[in-house]
Amino acid sequence: MTDAAGAGAGRDSDGPGLAMPVDAAPPGARAGRKRGERGGPNLAMALPALAMFGGFALAPMVLVFVLGFTQWSGLGKPVWTGLSNWHEAVHDPVTQGAGWLTLKLMITSWLVQTPICLLLGVFIAGRQRYRSVLAVIYFVPLLLSTVAIGITFRALLDPNFGVSAAPSLAFLAHDWLGDEDLAFYSIVAVVSWQFIPFHTLLYQAGVRQIPRIIYEAAIVDGAGRLAMFWYITLPQLRYTIVTSSMLILVGSLTYFDLVYVMTGGGPGFATRLLPLDMFLSAFSRREMGRASAIASLLVGGGLLLSLVLVRFSGFARMRSQQEGL
Amino acid sequence: MRKALVWTLGLTLWLGLVGSRAMAQTSPAGGTGPLVWALTGGDEKAYQDAVAQYNQKHPAAKITLQLFPNEPYKQKLLVAMGAGNPPDLFFNWGGGILKSYVDAGNVADLTADFAKDPTWKSRLFPAVLAAGTFGGKIYGVPINGMQPVMFYINNKVFQEVGAQPPKTWSELMAVIPKFKAKGKALLAVAGADRWTYLMYIEYLVDRLGGSQVFTDIAAGKPDAWSHPAMLKANEMIQELVKQGAFVKGYTGTSYGTGQSTALLTSGRAGMQLMGSWDYPNILAGSPDFIAKGSLAWMPFPTIEGGTGSPGDVVGAASNLYSVTSKSTHKAELLDFLKTNILSDSNIDVLLKNGSVPPVIGLEAKIAKAPQAAWLSFVYSIAKNAPSFQLSWDQALPPAAADALLTNLEQVFLVKITPKQFSDNMNKAMKR
Description:
The complex is a heterodimer.
Chain A: H1 2-12, H2 15-24, H3 26-37, H4 47-67, E1 70-71, E2 79-80, H5 84-91, H6 93-125, H7 129-138, H8 146-156, H9 183-208, H10 212-220, H11 225-236, H12 238-253, H13 257-262, H14 274-283, H15 288-312
Antiparallel strand pairs in A: 1-2
Chain B: H1 2-26, E1 35-39, H2 44-57, E2 64-68, H3 70-82, E3 89-92, H4 95-103, H5 111-116, H6 118-122, E4 133-134, E5 137-138, E6 141-142, E7 147-154, H7 155-161, H8 169-181, E8 185-188, H9 195-209, H10 212-218, H11 228-243, H12 259-265, E9 269-275, H13 278-285, H14 287-291, E10 295-298, E11 313-316, E12 320-323, H15 330-339, H16 344-352, H17 363-368, H18 372-383, E13 388-390, H19 392-395, H20 398-412, H21 418-430
Parallel strand pairs in B: 1-2, 1-3, 8-9, 11-13
Antiparallel strand pairs in B: 3-12, 4-5, 6-12, 7-9, 7-10, 7-11
Helix pairs in contact in B: 2-16, 9-11, 11-21, 20-21
């Protein structure tokens, strides 16, 4: 239970990132900041939120960290074992494999999702009616629960009754979830299918905030579509790209539910991601201490990743992209 | 300003504490009667029937029955036990998991209650209490049908390929190419679930080396996993894989969604090794398949030269109800367990569902039941079994059971050799 809370907290840490690009937007946000400078609301008003965050995110995280130094089956009293869990977690080939696989998921997810979302987002940011209709269709996966998606795709990808049984479509005839070389990429595909709508929405919002005058000026200067995309849209979307990337990377680091439903980590260890390894350690092997150590490593990894991204992308400085307008 | 801050913080903390205390006090039963946890599916109707019977007679302190799906239930129970907030009576499989709760002092000892009432015990199959008995003390009461594992057969497919269901292992190996020639497979197996693999090795080891092999393993004897029967069984499994005995895509096929059983009923595979709990599913999902006589069943084949008894059965004797030591309703629950669980009318509900409870002298009842042929087969193999081995993943402690499922999957994927399997398991047992 605490592990799940710990991992959840890791995901929370990217929450503020989501709010930031709104800040970057010129008109509304500037007014907001001015209000803030005048003193703002009483600090006490933040207390309920702080208490919730402290009680349900910070405290469990600290407890999980401490549990990482113990051996505990979930029953009885935890026994202090010092660093042995951490040592085992780092040296266990299965956990190591899970770590590499998680890294692979982060990178492939980013490589697959970012270009598609960017292009789709730019496309549906247009005001044409048919684009709005398409946008509605694109967003459907966003409305489905992960478990429903997992069960549906599991049935669709079944080697005997699913798409691989489709007549005269030989290229679909693979054992998508049962083949050790394919299972991981099947998971990446379904994860992308689930999250592309969300990131597309981010890009759509980002594109719509770019002032039209910039484009109008470009047209006057004789710029083509490609040039406008390359020299106006892309640079203007800089912070949206950073936000979306951060969500994809940190989200992949803590991704669990879909994999659990679709493959349970198999076949073999082919889709055993780090969060799943943590869960199985806790509830299948009943090694809560070991699982807590993995959970802490995940939280640490997520935090570090967010910090590095914020620092090196210039995200924290929040410099205006529209100087001189 | 600072004072207000401190006050608000204090108030929030205090409210939080009071709130959680209040919750802890009211949650165990939700009412005045005992709280019972069991599983959905399978014999669900029988659990509901027993509780309804009890509640009719005891309107003042009714039992609350909550049903959960299999996998989440295991975690829910662990968390509830660990947090000191368990139900009064809980469904379980006996074996290693129940023992972990017994060792933690969470389960009430029912030995004295059984001793007081000899007729309670004498009507049950003697072997069936074993799964819930540790160190001579009884912690569990059987509640539903016996669950022996056997081969389910699609008669029609066997006719199509021109073969007979194999009675021996060499016959089984000989049939494989006949199925392949027709573009079918002999065996359906739900590899994604992993416990389906377990039933193969359990039977192979028992047929090859007898029930003592696993008894030694469970007792923690050093290097017990290196028994020749274990090595040979894993070699035979890998031979099955290499010969293409299993259905296409078996590593990603799951049982829970009905995929593997559909392979059998749709005629893509000839047989499936599965527990008796699948019969109610087939009865509900493809009643025609049974009505037209396409479904047959048989015990696991004998193996030439094996020393185990061909009558040995693996699976689960029955699921159990255990009383938690924290429960304040032990007397009422004992009354419930004695009068409503496996009562005459409760047995009828089970039989109608295709389940055979571990109660002595049911022959006459079974002969009158609608699925008599099936029920009497299950009853006779369970009754006459020299050894009724509890599924290994239930019999072993959780960490060893997890290692077993993981390593066995590697054997089925031909990623490790039988020798590596034995070495890995010997190591896992020491931890």
